[in-house]
Write a structure and sequence with these properties.
Layout lengths: L6 H27 L4 H24 L9 H12 L11 H4 E4 L2 E5 L6 H11 L4 E5 L6 H14 L4 E3 L3 E4 L7 H26 L4 H19 L5
Length: about 230
């Protein structure tokens, strides 16, 4: 069952987004209207916070909680799952070759007689955790043989390449909460930049200010929905 964010955290996130986007809107209005627009800017800032709290809270509250599992639990699960490949003292052992590292786990392939089988099994056990495969110094070709296998199984975009290691990062799931958060964080500054840029061209035509804000919003949506994110 999917764990939800909850009303309290959803409300807190919505208020923060309202503060940020409302501030950007207030800055744009204040720069365009000058001192005469300070009251309007302050009013719209407060209005934006209220609207975000009312509209975004239900959406964010029912979003999926994100985060990585506990590293200790991941390491324990990996060691138990890979224990069938133990080769005894002096060989590969899950207890000594599987460790926690940062926000994920690392699997050293030194002394392993069947490293490709260990890699395949480790990938099956950890789909939502960063997994680092470290290769032995005495077999530099193992990394090159492993890379196309990983690319086929998880995709090239999820692999971080190092000279002596390959890291598989969790798949980024983009849901509506993520899209809303990115939109509220990215679009307002782009809209402000666009409106100011268009306004500087011809201050006497407010239509250009609106057009600049619209252009900034479109650019922000194009960045957010870009498949190469």
């Amino acid at each position: 069952m999917e764990e939800k964010v909850g009303f309290r955290k959803g409300l807190s996130a919505a208020i923060v987004l309202g503060l940020y986007s409302g501030f950007m809107l207030a800055v744009a209005i204040a720069m365009v209207l000058g001192n005469d627009g300070l009251m309007t800017a302050a009013f719209l800032w407060g209005l934006t916070i209220v609207l975000c709290a009312l509209i975004l809270t239900p959406i964010l509250a029912f979003g999926r909680k994100r985060g990585l599992p506990e590293t200790d639990a991941t390491v324990k699960m990996l060691r138990e799952g890979l224990s069938e490949f133990n080769e005894g003292i002096g060989g590969w052992r899950a207890l000594s070759h599987v460790r926690g590292e940062g926000m994920g786990a690392s699997v050293s392939l030194s002394h392993a007689s069947n490293p490709l089988t260990i890699i395949e099994k480790a990938l099956q056990l950890t789909a939502d955790c960063k997994l680092i495969f470290r290769f032995p110094k005495n077999d530099p070709s193992l990394r090159d043989r492993t890379l196309p296998i990983l690319e086929e199984k998880v995709g090239a975009s999820r692999i971080q390449r190092r000279t002596k290691s390959l890291t598989v990062v969790p798949e980024v799931i983009i849901d509506r909460s993520v899209i809303i958060t990115r939109m509220m964080m990215l679009c307002p500054p782009l809209m402000v930049a666009g409106s100011i840029a268009f306004y500087s061209v011809s201050p006497d035509q407010p239509f250009l200010t609106i057009l600049g804000a619209l252009a900034g919003a479109i650019l922000g949506m194009m960045i957010i929905t870009n498949k190469g994110r």
